[in-house]
Amino acid sequence: MTAVRSPAKAAARTKAGKVRRLTKPEVAEVFARFRKAMPEPKGELQYINPFTLLVAVVLSAQATDAGVNKATPALFALAPTPEKMVDLGVDKVEHLIRTIGLFRTKARNVVALSRKLVEEFGGAVPRTREALETLPGVGRKTANVVLNMAFGEPTMAVDTHIFRVSNRTGLAPGRDPLAVELGLEKVVPDEYKLHAHHWLILHGRYVCKARKPECPRCIVNDLCLYPDKTI
Predict the structure, then answer these.
(1) pLDDT, tens only, 146-177
(2) In the prediction, which pLDDT does 101 show?
(3) Buried b / exposed e across 178-199, counting CB within 10 Å, b at 16+?
(4) All domains of the chain in start order, with CATH
(5) Exposed, middle or buried by CB within 10 Å (0-12, 13-18, 19+), for 29?
(6) pLDDT value at residue 23
(7) Do 22 and 165 contact (CB within 8 A), yes or no?
C-alpha cells in the first residue's frame, strides 16, 4: 500500500481554507451513479471461504491484489482451514507466499492467527470487529474488509484508494483513515453502504488514480470538488 497523501493537498478548499464537502443530495447522487454503472461490485482478492478471505486480506497489506492472487491458489489448496494452515507451518507458508512483500512476517502472522482461531474460536472466523482485531496481523481495515465481504456487514474499509477518493471528491474529507471511515458512515445513505467500500476502491484504483486521475471518463466528474481535474 502506498503512503497516504495529505488531505490538505488532496481536498478542495474554500477561500477561508475550510475543506469543502459534498451535500447529502450530491453524495446520494454519487452512489446512485456508481450503482447504476456497477450494481454488484466485487473485491478482486480470490478466496474460497471466510478463513481464506481473512488470510488473503492479511497478505494484501503493502501488496497488490494481483500479486496476492498469484500466490494464494497453491496455499489455499493445501490449507483451506485454520487447522490445516497450522499443520502446514511457518516454513512451508513462507515458501508458498515468497513472492509477496514482507512474506516472512506475514507467514508468521497467518500461522499464528490460524492457531488462535483453532484454540479460541473453534476454528471459525469471528463476526465482530473487536474479536477480529485480536488476531495477529489483523487491524481495523482488515477486520472491516472481512466483515463486509464474508458476512455482509456495511463496513467501510478505508485503504489508500478510499482515502484519496473521499478527500478529493469531498465525499468525506478527513486527516486519517479513521476520520474518513467515520465520515463515510455518516454521509453514505443506508441503501448504498453494503457496496460503498468496493465502489470507492475500484473508482480509486482505475479512475481516480493517485498520480493522474482520469477525470474525463469519471462518472461523477461534475459533482467532484477536486480543484485540479485533468483534461
Answers:
(1) 999 999 999 999 999 999 999 999 999 999 99
(2) 92
(3) ebbbebbeebbeeebbebbbbb
(4) 7-42+155-217 (1.10.1670.10), 50-139+146-151 (1.10.340.30)
(5) middle
(6) 97
(7) no
CA–CA separation, 141 and 156 (whole Å): 8
The cell numbers describing 149, all together, are 465481504
Which conformational region is residue 129 in: left (phi greater than 0), alpha (psi within -120 to 50 degrees), or beta? alpha
Active site residues: 141, 159
In order of 80, 216, 228, the CA distances from 75 in angstroms are 8, 41, 44
Among 113, 151, 107, 112, smallest CA distance to 129 is for: 151
Helices (H), 79-190: 82-88, 90-96, 103-121, 129-132, 140-151, 160-169, 177-187
Instruction: Please answer whether residues 81 and 51 qualify as being in contact, where contact means their C-beta atoms are separated by less than 8 angstroms.
Output: yes
- Identify the segments of the chain with pLDDT beneath 50: 1-5, 8, 14-16
Backbone angles phi, psi at 88, to 5 degrees: -65, -45
Alpha-carbon distance 220 to 176, whole Å?
23
* Predicted TM-score (pTM) of this structure: 0.89
pLDDT for res 19: 75
